[in-house]
Structure formats: C-alpha cells, structure tokens
Amino acid sequence: MELKKRVVVSGMGCVTPIGPDKESTWQNAIKGVSGINCLSDELTKDLSVKLAAELKGFDPLEYMDVKEARRTDRFIQLAIAAADEAVRDSGLIMGHNADPHRTGVWIGSGVGGITTFETGMREVVQKGYGRVSPFALPMFLPNMAASRVAIRLGARGFTGCTVTACASGSQSIGEAFRVIQRGEAEVMISGGAEAPICPIGLATFSAMRALSLQTDPSQGSRPFDKRRDGFVMGEGAGMLVLESWDHAQARGAEIHAELLGYGSCGEGFHIAAPRLDGSDWARAMFLALDDAELTPDRIQYINAHGTSTLLNDLTETRAIKEVYGPHAYDVCISSTKSMTGHLLGASGAVEAVLSVLALNKEIIPPTINYEEQDEEMDLDYTPNIARRKKLDAVMSNTFAFGGHNAVLIFSKNPHEIPTKRLLI
Questions:
Q1: Sequence-ordered strand ranges (E) for 222-366
Q2: What is the pTM of this model?
Q3: Residue of 239, 7, 5, 235 whose CA lies nearest to 105
Q4: CA-based Rg of the chain, rounded to a whole angstrom?
Q5: What Enzyme Commission number(s) does the record list for this chain (predicted)?
Q6: Could you give the angle at the alpha carbon of 125 between the alpha carbons of 124 and 130, nearest 5°?
Q7: 80, 189 in Cβ contact below 8 A?
Q8: What is the rounded CA–CA span in Å between residue 148 and residue 192?
Q9: Host domain of residue 198
C-alpha cells in the first residue's frame, strides 16, 4: 500500500456571467443577482430559445495583444483569464516557488471552440476549403485551453484535458487531484472553460428540448421549481490551483480548502437521460464520500448540478435522498445555475470555486427564481435568499450527457484531517 498525498486548494479564479472575477462573482451570487439576459434577434431569429447567460464586458486585450486575440477562441481567452487570477491568488511564481517540471495543467471543455468551427464552416461555404485559416485547428480543439495556459505559465508537468460534456470541469479537477495524489506533480492548475453561445451551440441543445423557452430573463433558470422548463446556456471559466499539502506548507501558502474526495462513474444507460431512480448519481456521491472518508452527515452543503430541467432536478433530489437518508432534510442545497446559467464544461469548475468560497465565508448562495414546490422535491434548496451556516465540508455535484458523473468534496480545517490515508 502507498500513502496518498493530501491535496489543497491554494488559488481560485473565475470569469462568469455574474462577475469578471471570483470576488464579484461571489458577491453577486450571495445577493441573488442573475446573469441571464435576452439574446439578440439576429442570433436567435431561427430559434425558439431567446435567453442565455452571456459574459458581458469581457476584454481579451487585458490578457493578450490584438493579434493573439484574433487567433484565440473565446473559450481559451476565458480559461486564460480565470487561470491568471487563480495563479495570482496562489502566489505561485514559476521557477521560484514552483518547479515547472512538477507543475501541470488540466482544463476541460465540453464543446471547445465551437464558435470558431461554426465561423470556419460558413467561410468554407462562401469561399471554399482553400480559405481555411491555419489558426482554426488550434482555436477549436478542446485541449488548447490547457495547452495555452501551460505555455503562458511555462508549466511543463502533466498536462491534460477532459471532454465529458457538462462534467468536464469537475472531472478535470478530480483527475488533477489524482495526479498530485500519485506524486506525478506537486502543483496542478485545473478547471473548465466554455463559450458555446452561438447559433449552432444554441440550435443543438434546443433541438434536444434541453433549453428553457422562457422569454423573461427573470423566469429562465429556475432549478427545482415546479415550473422549470429547461436550462439557460451560459459561458465562463473557473480554475483552481491544487497543490500537495507538503508543497503548500513548505512555501507558506494560504490554503483555502482541502480537496478531500472525488467520485466519478459512468451510467451506461442513455445518451442524454439519467436513470430516473438516481442510483448512478447516488453512486458517484457515495464514491466521493468514501474517498473523503466521510459519512453523509458530515456534509452541510451541496452545490447541486440543478440544471432546471424536468428530469435532472427530480433525479438529483432522489439521489440525494438515497445517499443522505434522513439527513437529506438537514443538508442545505442550492443551484447557482439559477444565476450563472449552465456553463456546460465550465459549470463544475465555477461551482467548485463557489463551493470553496461558501465553505470559507460560511454563507450558502441561494437558488433564485424558486417560487412553487414540486411535490416530490421537498428538500431545502435555499430558496431565493443566501443563508449563513457553519460549514466544515461541502459537496459539488456534476452530471453530464452521456452518463458522465463527477462529485467533489472540499473540507475546511485541513490540519484536522488524518494524514495516514491509504491508496490501495
């Protein structure tokens, strides 16, 4: 048997529809501010969907020059912005207190540079394949967010990308966690980035009847509410700097939390729908709890996947009841997607940032737009108003199309957690 390395969060960053950085995102989250807006008629003229959660005012020129911005898809630009903030927050300086060969990057994306791909295909139709840009491929490949962040930082350790739809961000964090536990790196910059708001991005999800058909932004994303009718697509990025406990201690880093557990499993069931009894989602939660060596009663808050779709919210409620038993009625639950919209492959990463902030601030962000209870969904979804609560451990759930499930558990007071945790 080999000892697992303990892993802590030493830096966080995000850019979201409710804020250009983690502090503004957090402040707006606890105020219940919505980032959902009406899309332009030009963008939605042939579509039934009219709402999205766009990231307003983002300027890539704050991070790169004009030439580089033209050659960089928006999802990569967002990844760079969030990673820059996370690294600044961590105090890491490559070559000084971080060894480039022991520092890696793992960033996921569900659809990568879909806007670049769509724009390129339109140009092909108009001008032919001979006019395809040589920069098109490195703009739309999903792995290029991780690549560009690694190049920018000079990180030369393990670099990867997870592409598992809406679970991409959470699984990227979970797999980066495993890399450090195995001793293959001391530092990992990890998370997810997505910029899917374009005609083909909207049309594909709309065709599956996954998107809300509301026209009033205040009514669009309403997780767990009886009148929910689909999710609202959003864009953004979230990043964590993960470090081995020993490395963070040696350099005197400020530790935001310990990443204590990660559970991931597949469903082998359906390309889009979950098993309605919630058993597979429950299994992912059980795996994370087992990895963290915690019983369910040790969790005080769950940042739910909570997409505002008919099947998701019901299935997640059933899964939570299976895992938590009577404690399901005591644990606080909320879906921050009610404010940010659904950021697809970035959602789990942004929600990981919000979960750690909730843990540290001991404030649970609300589920806004919650007005009417669905009969079977009778748990505490923290409706409309943030709540103060003592928190020691929190769970973040992510469940994706295709049956990709990922759950993360973060704990406060890492010095109190036993150090002899074994990898069998």
A1: 236-244, 257-266, 301-303, 332-334, 363-364
A2: 0.96
A3: 239
A4: 20
A5: 2.3.1.179
A6: 30
A7: no
A8: 13
A9: 1-424
Rounded to whole angstroms, the Cα distance separating 47 from 350 reads 28
Q: Do 164 and 400 meet the contact criterion of CB atoms below 8 Å apart?
A: yes
Residue in 98, 20, 421 with CA at minimum distance from that of residue 258: 421
Domain total in the chain: 1
**In the 8-state DSSP scheme, what is residue 13?**
E
253-304 pLDDT, tens per residue? 999 999 999 999 999 999 999 999 999 999 999 999 999 999 999 999 999 9
Options 161, 166, 198, 332, the catalytic residue? 166
Instruction: Give the C-alpha separation, 181 to 175, whole Å.
Output: 10
CATH of the domain at 374: 3.40.47.10
The length of the chain is 424
Contacts 24+ apart (CB under 8 A), 380-384: 380/329, 380/330, 380/331, 380/332, 380/333, 381/223, 381/224, 381/304, 381/306, 381/333, 381/334, 381/335, 382/332, 382/333, 382/334, 384/32
**Which residue bears the tokens 């700097």?**
241
